[in-house]
Fold each of these.
Amino acid sequence: MTYKIFDLLQSLIDIENMSLKLYLKIEEHFKNESQEINILAKTIAKQEQKHIEYYESLSSSLKGKLDDSIDFYLYDKISGLLFEFKKNIKIPEVNTPRHLIEFAIEFERNNVALLLNIQGRLLQNINDVNNRIYRVISIIIREEEEHENMFRKLLE
């Protein structure tokens, strides 16, 4: 079986869906307790939904254009990283809007670290920086970094 960038994108969509559900649970939990946290969680959930749509659009735009395979051994290692990341997605203790923003920043930072790790594993030699899968991962990393920076600005 060969693995393609679409398999990786689907795993990233799964992570975004998990984080969307997490923020929706936080929103629901604080519905009657804290309007600020409720609204903030709802806003972050909308951002996660936009990420899901972005990844789905990216995947659709690459269909038929990017059929490069990911080595089975590498994909196996990447799958392990993705599994561990997903396993550690848990609803945080949130007491203030600041705690929620800090959690969102940390989540995005960890997501970027995961993507950098994946990208690094895909680099087998110096010419791989020009390979199309590597470039797609670079686009995704930039998107995630922008997401993290957006949350950082909320703390300023």
Amino acid sequence: MDMSNQGNDELQAVDLDLEWVHLLMSAKQAGIAAEDIRRFLSEKALQAM
């Protein structure tokens, strides 16, 4: 029996991708540009380093 968790990693990646899609679609509906979200997250990532 294969005990690797590669499948779990793939499912987590899909879940993460779906969360990003949901975030960007919600932002679009709220009138926030995707580029504004990317800039905000990039700035926060730089601050965290």
Amino acid sequence: MGTDTWLVRAGLSLAVLTAAAGCAVGDDALSGTVAVVQDVAGFRDTPVTEGFVAAVPGDAVDEVFASAPREQMAETHLGYLATELPPAHVLAAGGAVAEIRRGRFQLEVAAGEYLVCVVGASGSGSERTRGCHRVDLPASGVLAVTFGEAPVHVAVEE
């Protein structure tokens, strides 16, 4: 196991243990939920139970997604972006990753513009994005990440 892989797994494991203990990851952290939104009457939204949320700094998006299909990187297609996104690449670019546990996550970032992606959720593959959304994130607060037939959307709740 390479050093990058070990560091990512250790970081994700620490986040999982901290979340399981009911503790905040840090004083300045974003807490959030991830759910598949149903647009069919009679069906409830479903919390996502696998994968992770990645926050790629806005100024590092071109570098991190250099191998992604250019047509998928257009603003109108980002919500459905399907490409590989290893956690080590996000971390190396100064971003953050947070494992999704029972529909919840904790993400530590500095305030700024990010491309927030849902990765490895709902059968998309362990490091494959389900979609992304460009958003200005505060250093702390609450996020609601949703997707379904609609693209990935990130709402900052204040």
